[in-house]
Amino acid sequence: MQGVTGSGKTIVYFERIKEILKTNQQVLILLPEIFLTNQFKDRFEEFFGFTPSIWHSKIGIKSKRKIWQGIINNNLKLVIGARSALLLPFKNLGLIVLDEEHDPSYKQDEGIIYHARDMAIARASFENIPIHLVSAVPSLETFNNIKNKKYNHTKLVDRYSESPLPEAKVIDLQKVELKKDHFIAKETINTVNEYLKKKEQVLFFLNRRGYAPFLICKKCGFKHLCPDCSIYLTYHKSINKLICHHCGNKVKKDSKCKVDKDLCDFRMYGPGVEKIYEELINIFPKKKIKIFSSDFLSKKSETETILRKIEKNEIDILVGTQLISKGFNFPKLNCIVVVDADFSGMGYDLRTTEKNIQLYNQLSGRAGRFSKKSTIIYQTITPLNETLKDVLENNPEKFLSNELKVRKNNNLPPYTRLIALIISANSSQDSFRAAQEIKKKLSNLIELDVLGPVNSPIFRVKKKFRTRLLLRSKNSNLIQKKVGKIIENLTISKKIKLTVDVDPINFA
Q1: What's the pTM?
Q2: CATH code, 163-209+273-406
Q3: Which single residue of 316, 318, 496, 505 could bond 107 by disulfide (Cβ 3.0 to 4.6 Å)?
């Protein structure tokens, strides 16, 4: 089921669930993020009149045991959960609903690697029950299956109560003079003030946690690098420490300068949500401003409190990361500011453009759900960027159709099958050598392209050096079995860790 944001997709599948529950069958609703379950539970209670069971990694052992027993005994009819809920032992499952089916959070790429969307489709097929995939902009794989008539396709083209989509406004930062270390344009502030005067909420969106992506000493040029990973540390002013967003390492800010043996004099480059929050406090000192980011929502009570305040319009301005774009329903939010609409992305991720289209479509959908006027502002230094044009055009089908052509011309998914092999070791030499040996074994399969070995873009994570091979084949299922047999028979040193990721989402 595809529908524009705010079209009532949730209510449509709630009606379907009601029919399934009447037959005494069980229902599973999957959501991409734990944080979504609280507000979703409230909407569910309002519609159905009873409290659903919630399953995810943060709930306690007692609750998990109770849900497990209820499902086995067929006493529990409905579960709302994150991807792991798919593995619960349902005895009489009648329907699976996968909301925001395009969301990359459904892919688990640590430990046991699996994609919850694909596993859900498989489980529905094994049990011969329906599955509803729900999205405003479907994943390219799903869109291709719609095109090939493998899936039934239902589309909702209008918003509920005919509320219009937000009006888009582009502000070219190259033509705007900003104060030093400031990131919000005067034109943006003027528009925001219009909405604040009407007691409506404003969201400033920036998909960067912390205060600054990195610090550089003005005297010696020193930058804090994670001791265990090959990435720069992000400065978090709220705790006055630098954090690695891959391994969680925390480092003190102070460092001895190589030039004069005094402390480094750091300059902060680029803003994170904490820096934007600080700037907004100075611009709007009388307004209630909150950060909506995983760093500030570590406890369930904190999440529930901030959501209640947003719904009651007790918060004027939100500063949020990607987390806030996912399925939340804020009645008074009518203005969104994308602080840095940079669509350059990472060159190693073939899905960058697709992810951006989906993200900004979702994000714009947070605004104007119950209003006749709403605005989304894109501050950018690249106003002619092709991805921004696609976002502004708001024609997902056109974009997805064009993207399918690009993928087909370049032998990329969904027209080929990719399998990533990540070889990790204590030294880069051991990692690269092992990758070369594995490539030799796999090169005997004539229907397989073995690309690499190359260093991973982030070549060191948690003290391990990482080398990648990428396997590509059009003969999807058979080749997977053949590759599996070769890997099973490999003699791999205990110094080497081999990770196999079928249909990879993350290429870092």
Answers
A1: 0.90
A2: 3.40.50.300
A3: 505
